[in-house]
């Protein structure tokens, strides 16, 4: 069973950038789709972006043009580059497959505040 550990979160001001990392304990090469999700306080978890094994990507409208997902199968790591951050991006960010078949990690907190 793959275990996922997210990192890279922090507190930034609006307009700044962060890069999140998701390290898997096992190989992600065979996982067709990896995705980033987020959950804001009082809200349901929502999908932010996905990437296929071949490198195809898809983004939620609310991050399109600002976030970039990537994966390094050799390092068993998925990344989320987040630019032009907004206050409404504040949430705990998680990675998982799509569907989310693996146990959820602890997530990484992203806070965007002036």
Notes on the structure:
- The chain is mainly β and about 110 residues long.
- It is built from no helices and ten strands.
- The protein has strands at about 5, 10, 20-25, 35-40, 45-50, 55-60, 65-70, 75-80, 90-95, 110.
- The chain has a six-stranded mixed sheet, with no helix packed on it. Strands 1-3-8-7 form a four-stranded antiparallel sheet, with no helix packed on it.
- The mean pLDDT is about 95.
Q: Give the neighbour order of strands across the main sheet.
A: 2-10-9-4-5-6
User: How many β-strand stretches?
Assistant: 10
Helix content: under 10%
Report the span from N to C terminus: 40 Å
Q: Which band does the percent of strand residues land in? A: over 45%
Tally the helices: what do you get?
0
Rg, Cα atoms, Å = 13 Å
Main sheet overview: 6 strands, mixed
Backbone structural class? mainly beta
N-to-C series of helices and strands: EEEEEEEEEE
> What is the 3D shape?
globular
Mean pLDDT: 95
Descriptive key words:
six-stranded mixed sheet; 10 strands
Short summary of the structure?
It is built from no helices and 10 strands.
Topology:
Blueprint: E1 4-7, E2 10-12, E3 18-24, E4 33-39, E5 46-52, E6 57-59, E7 67-72, E8 77-82, E9 91-97, E10 108-112
Parallel strand pairs: 2-10
Antiparallel strand pairs: 1-3, 3-8, 4-5, 4-9, 5-6, 7-8, 9-10
